[in-house]
Amino acid sequence: MTFSTLINGQVQSQLSITDRGLAYGDGLFETCRLIDGVAPLLSLHWQRLCAGCIRLKLPNPFHSCADFAQKLSQVVPHNGGGLAKLILTRGSGGRGYLAPSDPVVSWILQGFPVPETPLEHYHQGVVVRRCALQLSVQPILAGLKHLNRLEQVLARAEWQDDGIFDGLLFDQNQRLIESTVCNIFVIKKDQLLTPLLDQSGVAGVMRAAIIESSSALALDIKETNITENQLLNADAAFLCNSVRGIIPIRAWHLDSGDIIKQWPIHPLQKKISQHWHPILNLPACQ
């Protein structure tokens, strides 16, 4: 299978060394899962991209959702699946941090194979740890998938154990926010709780899809602040993102290997997984 790279719509591999995305992380990104040339969660990716452009005052280089979809399909083979990663920057120009008043954005679109996820992650769940790094509180950037990811890079550097799937991230006020690459849902008495992302964190597309499907699936979902104790007292918990779908959390381990908490796979996790995973061409939770 052949995957391609487009820069500003052209097949090339060079970007200006003065680009503000490189200098300051001044931009956004999206990672879209495609199946046979189509992104199942396209509309949600498009909504987040448009919202991010408005918040950062970036011109959107795509004329419409259809235009965006057409560009995505150019970098991933149509006979199978893949990922299309968009990096959108403010381009070059300006003086120092002062951005140009009329920026000419740059965008990079790269196609990649879908990373393999072991089947047992879906059937048995995964192990997580708590990261020592605390996410900064910044309401202006909260929810955006912007290019500044140093917090996630430093958090991911905290462990090397392949048995740990991901690390949980709390903010400076000790509120659970997300993991390094996923959003999180907690289940308590048949209600789904997911962290409120008005102060920090990334508003993920899979998270949005689950919330959007709450009526169709008869789900009781609440966006709220969640503490460590609430997580420990939960009936179940799961991670989600648009690449890997819904992944149950089986256990929370200390770096010593000691188990803080274990959770079963909850019927609500199965219900959500059995709805969304066929759409995403992923195995459902058992």
From TrEMBL:
Pathway the protein acts in: Cofactor biosynthesis; tetrahydrofolate biosynthesis; 4-aminobenzoate from chorismate: step 2/2
Pfam entry (one): Aminotran_4
GO terms of molecular function: 4-amino-4-deoxychorismate lyase activity; pyridoxal phosphate binding
Keyword Ligase annotated: no
Enzyme class: lyase
Cofactor(s) needed: pyridoxal 5'-phosphate
Alphabetical list of InterPro entries matching this protein: Aminodeoxychorismate_lyase_IV (IPR017824), Aminotrans_IV (IPR001544), Aminotrans_IV_CS (IPR018300), Aminotransferase-like (IPR036038), BCAT-like_C (IPR043132), BCAT-like_N (IPR043131), Class-IV_PLP-Dep_Aminotrnsfr (IPR050571)
Protein role: Involved in the biosynthesis of p-aminobenzoate (PABA), a precursor of tetrahydrofolate. Converts 4-amino-4-deoxychorismate into 4-aminobenzoate (PABA) and pyruvate.
Subunit structure and binding partners: Homodimer.
Alphabetized PANTHER family for the sequence: AMINO-ACID AMINOTRANSFERASE, AMINODEOXYCHORISMATE LYASE
Protein name (database record): Aminodeoxychorismate lyase
